[in-house]
Design goal:
802 residues, alpha+beta, Herpes Virus-1, 5-stranded antiparallel beta sheet, 21 helices, 26 strands, globular, protease, metal-binding, ubl conjugation pathway
Length: 802
């Protein structure tokens, strides 16, 4: 044992953590080294940050903090119990991975026991003192014991997430359950022989708990299900709750849906509500499929789950640099897929992987909450190969677990901070926003994805035109279902499937026939002319009908294409189009090139400052907001429907909910943009909020108009433009490119992300990446050589310029 005298110079700096102190004892803050790593983990007894062997010396040299608790974890396999063969398999009840009731990624894997071994280490020289050790100074003993006893920050974060997360099975108690109105109409429900009151369906039946009506459920996007009679009944009567017959159990549970709350709910008084109609729950048995069982069956029927994971192939596992798997932290597959794709672009590699030494050299007080550090940590972890080892049975790698990154990028976000499944495209855009905010003094790597979209609007009365540009990071393409090349075959397949289901059989999922959509048809849908109502023409000074076409003014180095597969059905429920789109391996997109103002075109004059401001019916606006729609979208709906009523406005909202600018700040078509900035005028509430931080009105307005009205970005803009805050704005010539890179329009496919499931809120994501000339599938911590990349079933596609 080293001399205790080595500890003496450092005792004054040693701290004893309190209950609020976060102690990073699970993983290095700069790498994915942990106590299980060969060299263990070093936890500073001053800052309580954890470091792998590669970073602990740098930290010591930078800070002088020399005393650490060293943790090494011993891992031993648990002997497998003898299999009797008569035990029931765990039932899958949720279309998800790594969460309760879902597919267990650890199922069938070797189990282990873990034993932690501790010692106190002093740098330089890595002098070691065994633990426990009564000879150590009292302050060190108390500090070490507190670190050992402390709760893991990962577990703390997990509990915070779970505290506010709906897990898909735990349901909120309906606000209508307590005082539910039940009519004394004499209806008694028989124990068998149920049939929809409006059609001949005898399955998927829902009992309305107010009047006892038995009606069929919603029609699913694939044509199965019911005929929507239960939801129609709600629209006509307003009776809010219904229970699915056949799902009721003897303990008074069942699938209860609240049409008023638009969600599956809990009815704690279900037994009493059923008794009103003569139903004794103690005599009931569950006979019908629950909603989650139907979700699983639907995916099994379409075969999407197996196809996208290439489950029918004996895939060869891969490992090594840039072939590192990511563990699923409970519905984190949407994060895993996006980051695997992001780090295929050289700009991201240069910034966060090759630039990692510079990023790490800062050693901030809390690197676990430094976005650039955690992004660099993730990039190095994925591409270095340090954590990519041969996998176990089934091709699983040990992989890395991005706990810190997930917590950081999701913090304070209403959706990404939860453990619910999310839309990978929305996360992609959220991540690029975070990268932009954290690129204040560095080149933004997302610029390789940025392009200028050009819109041409023509007044139908004067024929004058106006060109406007906006910057985008993805190209959303409509799915042209009407253009399917195999419509006849699809109809034949649907007829065969209906016949099979009528006699209780199921067709082989591998034989499913999906509508096959040509990629060009999706491009044509994007490029087609759009009619704009209520356009204020500055040429004739009144509202007219206008025609709009959208093109690209620039083409980026990397183009991310989103197929708009997720939609809203007529009954307002989310759905996904089960189609195949013939996405090209290589493509020439020159047809999308915009040309700007042409010599034979007359430009519309600038709108005058006295252009009439739009008016919104406040009563209807309030009702729409209560329905959960964004305020700017509600304003648009009222504008385009001339305040004609709630129904017209809500119908407009449902028709346009997938628009790229659905929730963006609304500027009436043809209105005059802010002259100084070329953007929308600053919102007065936002101006006052920034002025409350000590800035002048002029500074606040300039920052907001320069950043599209986003307060967080405006504050970043203020701090990065301090030298020019009070200088008069310099009028700039219109720039069609918006500073975006431009180049040839020819691309090749290098990655795509696929989703399995019927909506963004359920299911699973995987991605396929072109790596060193061969396609690789990344399915969380399973990394393998792809034998048949299912590119026609993807959702997001990354193309690289040829």
């Amino acid at each position: 044992m080293a001399s205790l005298d080595l500890l003496t110079p450092h005792l004054s700096k040693i701290k004893i953590p309190n209950a609020q102190q976060l102690i990073y004892k699970d993983e290095c803050v700069y790498s994915f080294d942990n106590p299980e790593s060969e060299t263990g983990l070093y936890v500073s007894l001053v800052s309580f940050l954890g470091f792998g062997r590669n970073y602990v010396e740098q930290y010591f040299q930078k800070t002088g903090n020399a005393v650490f608790l060293h943790i090494c974890r011993e891992k031993k396999p648990v002997p497998e119990p003898e299999k009797t063969g008569d035990g029931p398999e765990k039932k899958i009840t949720r279309l998800a991975i790594g969460v309760e009731g879902g597919f267990d990624p650890d199922s069938g894997r070797q189990k282990f026991t873990y034993t932690d071994h501790y010692s106190v280490v002093v740098l330089p020289g890595f002098h070691t003192y065994p633990w426990p050790n009564s000879a150590l100074p009292d302050v060190i003993q108390k500090s070490v014991q507190a670190v050992i006893d402390a709760e893991s920050p990962f577990k703390i974060a997990e509990m915070e997430v779970l505290a506010g997360t709906w897990d898909g099975e735990a349901r909120e108690v309906s606000v209508h359950a307590v005082n539910l109105k039940q009519l004394d109409n004499g209806i008694k429900i028989p124990p068998t022989g149920w049939k929809c009151a409006k059609c001949d369906l005898t399955a998927n039946l829902w009992l309305n708990l107010t009047d006892g009506s038995i009606l069929c459920g919603r029609r699913y996007f694939d044509g199965s299900g019911g005929n929507d009679h239960a939801v129609e009944h709600y629209r006509n009567t307003g009776y809010p709750l219904a229970v699915k017959l056949g799902t009721i159990t003897a303990d008074g549970k069942g699938d209860v849906y609240s049409y008023a709350e638009d969600d599956m709910v809990e009815d704690p008084y279900l037994a009493d509500h059923l008794k009103h109609f003569g139903i004794n729950v103690q005599q009931l048995q569950k006979t019908d499929k629950s909603m989650v069982e139907l979700e699983l069956e639907l995916n099994q029927r379409t075969g999407e789950w197996n196809t996208l994971q290439e489950s029918g192939s004996d895939l060869r596992p891969l490992h090594g640099p840039a072939l590192t798997g990511l563990n699923n932290l409970g519905n984190s597959c949407y994060i895993n897929s996006v980051v695997q794709v992001i780090f295929r672009m050289p700009d991201f590699v240069r910034r966060f992987v090759e630039g990692a030494p510079d990023i790490f050299s800062n050693f901030p007080e809390d690197p676990a909450n430094d976005f650039n550090i955690q992004t660099a940590k993730l990039g190095v972890g994925l591409l270095s190969g340090r954590y990519s080892f041969p996998g176990e049975e089934g091709g699983r790698q040990p992989g890395v677990s991005p706990h810190m990154y997930r917590h950081l990028v999701g913090r304070a976000h209403p959706e990404f901070s939860t453990k619910r499944q999310q839309d990978a495209n929305e996360f992609y855009l959220h991540l690029l926003t975070l990268i932009e905010r954290n690129s204040r003094h560095k080149p933004n790597p997302a610029d390789c994805l940025k392009f200028s979209v050009e819109e041409r609007v023509q007044c139908t009365e004067s024929n004058g035109v106006r060109y406007t540009q906006r910057a985008e990071h993805h190209l959303p393409l409509p799915v042209a279902v009407h253009a399917a090349t195999n419509a006849h075959e699809v109809r034949q397949y649907e007829a065969r499937r209906a016949q099979a289901e009528a006699i209780g059989q199921r067709l082989d999922p591998s034989l499913v026939v999906r509508p096959l959509i040509p990629f060009q048809a999706c491009l044509d849908s994007f490029m087609k002319e759009e009619i704009i109502e209520q356009f204020y023409s500055s040429a004739v000074n009144k509202k007219v009908t206008a025609r709009k076409i959208t093109r690209l003014a620039t083409f980026p180095d990397y183009l991310l294409i989103q197929l708009k597969k997720f939609t809203i059905k007529e009954d307002w429920t989310p759905a996904k189009l089960d189609v195949a789109v013939d996405m090209p391996w290589e493509v020439d997109l020159s047809c999308l090139r915009g040309r700007g103002l042409q010599p034979d075109e007359t430009q519309l004059p600038e709108a005058s400052s006295d252009t009439p401001a739009p008016t919104y019916d406040e009563a209807i606006l309030s009702e729409l907001l209560e329905m959960g729609f964004p305020v700017e979208a509600c304003k648009k709906s009222l504008y385009y429907t001339n305040n004609s009523g709630k129904e017209a406005a809500s119908n407009w909202l449902m028709e346009h909910i997938n628009d790229w600018d659905f929730a963006n700040k609304f500027e009436p078509p043809g209105s005059r943009p802010d002259a100084a900035s070329g953007g929308a005028a600053a919102d007065e509430t936002s101006v006052e909020q920034i002025m409350g931080m000590g800035f002048t009105r002029a500074q606040a307005v300039r920052a907001l108009t320069s950043t599209g009205g986003d307060i967080a970005r405006a504050l970043d803009w203020i701090f990065s433009h301090a030298h020019e805050l009070d200088a008069p704005p310099t009028p700039a010539a219109p720039d069609r490119t918006l500073g975006c890179r431009d180049g040839p329009e020819k691309y090749k496919l290098i990655a795509f992300i696929s989703h399995m499931g019927t909506s963004t809120m359920v299911g699973h994501y995987v991605c396929h990446v072109l790596h060193e000339g061969r396609w690789v599938i990344f399915n969380d911590n399973k990394v393998a050589l792809s034998e048949n990349p299912p590119k026609d079933l993807g959702y997001l596609y990354l193309y690289e310029r040829l």
